[in-house]
Design brief:
Blueprint lengths: L1 H5 L6 E5 L8 E3 L2 E9 L6 H6 L1 E10 L2 E2 L1 H6 L7 E6 L4 E3 L8 H4 L2 H49 L9 H5 L1 H7 L11 H9 L12 H11 L2 H9 L2 H36 L7 H14 L6 H24 L7 H9 L16 H7 L3 H9 L3 H17 L8 H25 L4 H9 L9 H10 L10 E3 H9 L14 H11 L10 H21 L25 H14 L5 E5 L11 E5 L3 E8 L4 E4 L11 E7 L4 H21 L11 H10 L9 H13 L4 H14 L10 H10 L4 H7 L3 H30 L6 H12 L1
Parallel strand pairs: 8-11, 11-13
Antiparallel strand pairs: 1-6, 2-5, 2-7, 3-4, 3-6, 9-10, 12-13
Helix pairs in contact: 5-7, 5-9, 5-11, 5-27, 12-13, 16-18, 21-23, 24-25, 25-28, 26-29, 29-31, 31-32
Length: 806
């Protein structure tokens, strides 16, 4: 949180009040925003509190009394850290004005306004309390189920070692009850684990008695005139509500502290920086089994599944509350790296030594520059820049912006010249290949181990998959006109650009569409923009690979085709229809020409030569044809989870594809499609009676967080749908869940599990009825074709199978 406080770019007035500090006066805000933070533990130093605080609420304020609720119920100390950003400076109210709530009763209109804002503040805190309580119950249930599996493995694999943590000892009773429900594990099954998880009844199903919050919500939702008249009847009415408000606030503070401390305890039970955790015990069990040469086929998969699910929970918590739990995920990854499934074969053969690689890379920058044929002045500038950078190693953002812009421009010119020649000549020079694959320039910019790792990984990028490309292979396809160039940032296609150029150059002897023009268009637009975006660096962007942008072990971050294919498979396992779209039958039989079929069109995935943290959905269709592929772009080196990156791109892809397919009707609710239904949900959420006040407040904050961008709002819900709802964690409200279930359904096996749960039963029945109706209509129409002597084409059979298996 400290960085958010000290490096704010807001030009409006800003002030921070730190938790635990003495309240000397109540400060009334102007119009602005108030962020509320709660420290995870009791801290003494102010900076320590700030660094260990989680964001529990964010409310829009206008004349909000900061310190009023704190001073009455907490010994004149702030219960939270408050960060106010607004238009005006704060005005002070002497403490004596607070006696008998004079601040509220002397001027009823102002008092009502202040009171309603306090109600809104309490509502936000209650929403956070509810979310954290539900999350804790889910984690508790998860821990109990994993603990039972531990005892199952201990019994079936005859593990002699006794567990060293109390949670496992306490789980023996649960295991005795659930033992019969765990089937024999030849290999670990997520479905079996989910079924077992559902079998646990949650102990201590907590629901805090805060009826007053529901009452405050009802007051806020009342007709304004009726509500104001009610408060104006007598000053005692306002005084009573102030007193109740303070009691509720005190309870909320107490319960929030209790639940956040419990969150910390639960998450550290699963894994912590010491060795006393659930995952550590599972790894110890695996090591013992390996040493005894027993069969461990199921256990490695189980450990990796538990770890992935745990990392998802941690990521959700930290992202939701803008707070670092301090859990060493790198240590967890290191421990997991020692676990190898017996079904996985790893080729560790090394054919070249590190010394040979470093010797071969001597003078790599000169070889790349000389091979390019770039103008001598530009080559000299580029080399001088790199040499100065190697010698002084300044921070990128300390280099003058003009110098960086010039260097970046030369870098892309250099890349264009090298790839243009390389495609024709195919020289056997690893330095050139590493430049084209990674953006490598000089081994002095990297450590010896990093250079060696990049060198040995080059062979991994011989792509067998037809839809996964390195940038080198992609640009080669562009040059030989096998693939059309991508659209530019303005959405203009290459064909349209060439047409405009032809009109401008009419009468001149020039051929606008050449190999070089296609290459230049692609590098100047898609490549240049995606390289910067995928790097994740906007201010300190630097296109050349350096040692501080990648770890020592390159294998951990290399985005190989196998890694991408695994991520695509995991995405399709959760959202099997994400790449399907409605197309007209494309065969030759005239009678079927009007048939609309569902067909899967996988996107092209392009690896940009950069180390970064972001992926990019460049376009949902690559041509006029609705059957054309989309284009996803990933950095070739990333420490991020590529499956999570893929899920985010898939959400953006779903939205943009639907918009393109629907055209101007994309938000017309009379047409039942993803974008129109979701847009209507966002437009009308305030009047939606199916949503609770807490859900409406959450939607308001979500819209604000994504700057009212519908695609980004949808994508955030889509990520929750696949990352959490898929595994049984409830993160969406009922309206969004119904939309996702209808347009982004899980596989039938997962839906069969979920239909038993109350949150899914109604929407699952509606979905199944609609699916069966479509199948009946298709079977009737296809049967008519068969009866009239027309044999069904494979495309039509696949379409019927899609809806049957859907």
């Amino acid at each position: 949180m400290a960085q958010r406080l000290h490096e704010s770019n807001y030009e409006v007035f800003e002030q921070c009040f730190v938790e635990g500090a003495e309240v000397t006066a109540v400060r009334t805000t102007g119009k602005g925003n108030l962020d509320i933070y709660l420290s995870f533990k009791n801290r003494k130093e102010t900076e320590d509190i700030i660094n260990h605080s989680m964001k529990v609420a964010s409310v829009e304020v206008d004349c909000f009394p900061i310190g009023f609720l704190d001073i009455v119920g907490s010994q004149k100390k702030y219960c939270f850290t408050y960060l106010y950003k607004g238009e005006n400076e704060l005005s002070e109210i002497p403490l004596e004005v607070l006696s008998e709530f004079k601040l509220f009763t002397e001027k009823p209109d102002n008092g009502i306004k202040l009171l309603l804002q306090c109600f809104g503040f309490v509502r936000s805190l209650h929403q956070t309390l509810t979310e954290i309580t539900e999350l804790n119950l889910e984690i508790e249930q998860f821990i109990r189920c994993v603990s039972c599996y531990y005892w199952f493995f201990k019994e079936t694999c005859r593990i002699a070692r006794e567990p060293g943590i109390k949670i496992l000892a306490d789980a023996l009773e649960d295991y005795a009850e659930m033992k019969s429900t765990i089937p024999p594990l030849i290999c670990f099954s997520i479905e079996q684990f989910e079924n077992c998880l559902e079998g646990f009844s949650l102990k201590n199903n907590k629901r805090y008695d805060l009826v007053s919050v529901e009452y405050f919500n009802a007051l806020m939702d009342m007709n304004q005139e009726c509500r104001d008249n009610f408060f104006r009847q007598d000053p005692k009415v306002i005084s009573y509500h102030c007193a109740e408000l303070i009691k509720t606030f005190d309870d909320l503070v107490k319960y929030l502290i209790k639940e956040t401390e419990y969150s910390n305890k639960l998450l550290n039970t699963v894994f912590c920086n010491s060795n006393d955790s659930l995952i550590s015990e599972l790894i110890r069990a695996y090591v013992e089994i390996r040493q005894s040469d027993s069969d461990t086929a199921a256990l490695p998969y189980f450990i990796n599944y538990v770890s992935d699910r745990y990392k998802n929970i941690v990521a959700y918590f930290e992202e939701k509350y803008e707070f670092s739990l301090g859990i060493d995920i790198n240590k967890l990854d290191f421990l997991l790296s020692g676990i190898k499934s017996e079904t996985t074969e790893i080729d560790e053969r090394i054919e070249v030594s590190q010394e040979d690689v470093l010797y071969e890379m001597i003078g790599s920058m000169d070889r790349i520059l000389n091979y390019s044929g770039l103008e001598q002045e530009k080559r000299d500038f580029f080399k001088t820049f790199i040499e100065n950078f190697k010698e002084y190693r300044p921070k990128i953002d300390n280099i003058p912006a003009e110098s960086r812009r010039k260097f970046n421009a030369v870098f892309f010119e250099l890349y264009e010249e090298v790839i243009s020649k390389y495609v024709k000549e195919k020289p056997k020079d690893k330095a050139l290949e590493m430049f084209l694959a990674y953006g490598f320039i000089d081994s002095d910019l990297l450590s010896p181990r990093q250079t060696y790792g990049l060198y040995t990984m080059l062979d991994k990028f011989t792509f067998a998959r037809e839809n996964i490309y390195s940038m080198k292979n992609w640009l080669e396809k562009i040059i030989i006109d096998e693939i059309s160039p991508s659209i530019n940032e303005l959405g203009v296609t290459y064909d349209k650009f060439i047409k405009e150029q032809s009109q401008m150059n009419a009468g001149r002897n020039s051929e606008p569409d050449t190999e070089r023009s296609r290459l230049h268009f692609e590098i100047s637009n898609m490549f240049r923009t995606s390289h910067r975006v995928c790097s994740g660096q906007y201010i300190a962007y630097f296109p050349v690979l350096c040692n501080d942008t990648i770890p020592e072990d390159i294998r951990r971050v290399a985005v190989t085709p196998e890694r991408l294919q695994k991520s695509v498979s995991e995405l399709l396992e959760r959202d099997f229809s994400v790449f399907h779209r409605e197309l007209f039958y494309s065969g030759e039989k005239e009678i079927f020409k009007k048939e609309i079929i569902m067909k899967q069109v996988l996107p092209d995935i392009i690896l940009v030569p950069a180390a970064g943290t972001r992926a990019l959905m460049w376009q949902e269709m690559s041509g006029v044809s609705r059957a054309s592929r989309g284009r996803f772009i990933f950095p070739v080196l990333t420490s991020e989870d590529t499956t999570l990156m893929m899920i985010k791109l898939a959400g953006q892809f779903r939205w943009e594809l639907c918009r393109s397919m629907m055209g101007v009707r994309w938000n017309d609710i009379s047409y039942n499609c993803l974008t129109s239904v979701y847009a209507d949900y966002i437009d009308t959420y305030r009047k939606n009676k199916n949503l609770t006040p807490e859900a409406k407040e959450s939607i308001r904050l979500q819209i604000k967080r994504h700057n009212n961008n519908l695609r980004n709002i949808f994508t955030s819900d889509y990520e929750l749908w696949l990352r959490y709802e898929y595994f049984g964690s409830r993160k969406l409200n009922r309206e969004v869940r119904a939309i996702m279930y209808q347009f982004c359904p899980f596989r039938v096996s997962k839906r069969k599990q979920l239909i038993k749960q109350p949150a899914f039963s109604d929407i699952a029945i509606r979905f199944e009825n609609e699916r069966k109706k479509i199948v009946r209509e298709l079977e009737k129409r296809y049967q008519h074709y068969i009866k009239t002597g027309h044999e069904l084409e494979p495309e039509l059979e696949d379409n019927l199978r899609f809806y049957k298996d859907m």
